[in-house]
TrEMBL record:
Residues 15-303 form the Carbohydrate kinase PfkB domain. This is Carbohydrate kinase. Keywords: ATP-binding, Kinase, Nucleotide-binding, Transferase. The keyword Phosphoprotein does not apply. It comes from Frondihabitans cladoniiphilus. The lineage of its organism: Bacteria, Bacillati, Actinomycetota, Actinomycetes, Micrococcales. Pfam families: PfkB. Belongs to the carbohydrate kinase PfkB family. GO terms for molecular function: kinase activity. The keyword Acetylation does not apply. InterPro entries: Carboh/pur_kinase_PfkB_CS (IPR002173), PfkB_Carbo_kinase (IPR050306), PfkB_dom (IPR011611), Ribokinase-like (IPR029056).
């Protein structure tokens, strides 16, 4: 297994991503425009752009917006699970961006999936966001994690959306259930504050490590991130960047973290929860670089391998 500071290699472990795909309708100083969106879609797209073999199970229509999502995924090389297509309209999120580039969302979304089965060759399964909290599909996502094949690395980003899932107690219980099954738990500091009001970020990280996670990451916007593994706690600062908007930044952090785990040959260490401080720091650095590229341009536009290296 290569050391943590070895040069990245092209990942070959296939990843299966499950969750919502939608169209972000953005109103900002430049007017009204649309971008492909949805946290799981963004993670799948980010992974494929980094050369990771990625399949997405989602839900979108055969309408014009659905075709735009399909074309977007095709450009990155994301394989689409055929069960993703529906006759219903494609979901949307109205994103209002403030002067500092931060986005607020209003969703029109349906998440009805039926049984979800990971491809037999999938070595990583990722999920998160609305797909893990909105009925009826959230129950199918939970079953996917509960019945994952031995040796599958499970990654999870709750990316809470109180406007869509206002029952906080139910969401907290579902997050704890999924986090207890996951090897990697990633969230923003805003997620942490909503899920665990009054707790410090260090206490939130400890909560999920105690639940069984091998790696817990909390992003802190322009202040970088806090990343921990059993016996390891790393606070990594962000590098300066001119922010265009923050749409998709957390998703790029997530895809960058998964890429770092796979490209550094750390999947086995994740599964047996034996990451070193150098491993954790390397994952944090790559994930932050990935997010940094995304905030420097409009929309959820994650880096290529060349941009990540640069």
């Amino acid at each position: 297994m290569p050391p943590a500071d070895a040069a990245p290699t092209s990942p070959t472990d296939p990843v299966f991503v499950v969750g919502e795909a939608l169209v972000d309708i953005v109103d900002d100083a430049e007017g009204h425009h649309e971008h492909p969106g949805g946290s799981p879609l963004n993670v799948a797209y980010g992974l494929a752009r980094l050369g990771v073999p990625t399949t997405l199970r989602t839900r979108f229509g055969r309408d014009a917006r659905g075709r735009s999502l399909r074309e977007h995924l095709d450009r990155a090389g994301v394989a689409l699970d055929p069960a993703s297509l529906t006759s219903e309209p494609t979901s949307t999120a109205l994103a209002t961006v403030d002067a500092e580039g931060h986005a607020e969302y209003e969703f029109e979304i349906d998440w009805t999936t039926g049984e979800i089965e990971a491809p037999r060759d999938a070595r990583v399964v990722h999920t998160g966001s609305i797909a893990t909290a909105l009925a009826p599909g959230a129950d199918d996502v939970l079953r996917l994690f509960e019945h994952a094949a031995p040796g599958t690395l499970l990654t999870f980003d709750p990316n809470v959306r109180p406007g869509v899932t206002p029952d906080r107690a139910a969401v907290v219980a579902r997050v704890d259930r999924l986090a207890g099954l996951a090897h990697v738990v990633k969230m923003s500091d805003e997620d942490a504050a909503w899920l665990h009001p009054g707790l410090s970020l260090e206490a939130v990280v400890a909560h999920y490590l105690d639940a069984g996670a091998a790696l817990v990451a909390v992003t802190r916007g322009g202040d970088g991130c806090l990343v921990a593994a059993p016996g390891v706690l790393v606070s990594e600062p962000s590098l300066p960047v001119a922010v265009v908007d923050t749409i998709g930044a957390g998703d790029s952090f997530m895809s960058g973290a998964i890429f770092a785990i796979l490209s550094q040959g750390l999947r086995a260490r994740m599964l047996d929860r034996s990451l070193s401080e150098a491993d954790v720091r390397r994952i944090a650095e790559v994930a932050l670089r990935s997010a940094r590229v995304t905030v420097s341009r409009a929309g959820a536009n994650p880096p290529s391998v060349a941009e990540l290296a640069g």
